[in-house]
Structures are given as C-alpha cells and as structure tokens.
User: What shape does this take?
Amino acid sequence: MKNVVLIGFMGTGKTSTGRLLASRMGYSFVDTDRKIEKECHLTIKQLFAEHGETYFREQEAAVVRKVARQHHLVISTGGGTILNPDNMKALRKKGVIVSLTASVEVILERTSRKNTRPLLENQTMEERRAAITKLRAQREDLYKQADLIIDTSELSPLQVVEQIMSFVRKEVKQRA
Assistant: This one.
C-alpha cells in the first residue's frame, strides 16, 4: 500500500491527524519539520532566523527525498513543501496525497496557540490574518492538486482520519 502524504497550510491538523492515522493504519509517522529539526539540530524557528528560508527549503527538499523513498508511512509535510515541484513529484511516486484545509479564522486560532510559526512571528492578529490569507491564496492551486481534499475546520482529527481511511480503502479496491 502507498504512503499517505498530508499536505496543507499550517494549522490545518496535519500532525495531529497524521499521528492518529499512522496508528490506525499500522504505519510509521514522519513529520518532515521534526525530521529537519532533528537532522539540523535546530528548531524551524532557529533555522529561519539563522540561515533564512532558502536554506530551510533546501533542508526540507533533502528530507522529502529521503522519506519519499520509504514505504508504509504517514508523512506530515510542512505547509510550504508543495512550493517545490520536485518535492511533490517524489512524494506522489509512492504516496496518496491528501490536502487538509481550514478557514482563515480556524487557522488563525490554531496557529495562535504556540508562537512557533516563523512566517507569522511578531505580528498583530490583523497582520497574522493578512499573512495567512495571502499565503493561502498563493498556495491554493498547489494544494488543490491532491488526490483528496478535506476541510478540517469543523472536524476532529478522528473524523478526518475516517475520511482518509475510507478514501484509501476505495483506492485499494479500485486497483485490485
């Protein structure tokens, strides 16, 4: 069976859904942002501050290439992973792509819980709202290229997992 790759904007539930989905499927869970932090020995916030976004995106691409070659994974990607077409090509080769989305208000609320989002750091709520709206609009067409799109705004991670598992089961049946 293919990997399940979760893409989507920050705060859409990729990590919480991914952990639960991996457990339910008997797969291993990989959060690409955490893997980057582990390999670089820096937090994402520190990577952005010390080396900039370009360096971070290079590290992200290297991690994506590694995990995309593996099997039986649920992969939670960073929100900007989709900006690099090579990342998506590698992930799609052995994976089903699931895009998680949410309303701007839900994303704003979820990302406000922790101040660990470098692209939203040191901003007022209105500035954060504007940044979220702008970044989502820039990435929207890329997120829409997924095999499945789920709006998580009013769903629990368990409900999202059920939708993904139902989709994956149908995919397996269609190939059989």
Notes: Residues 44-68 form the longest helix (25 residues). The mean pLDDT is 91.
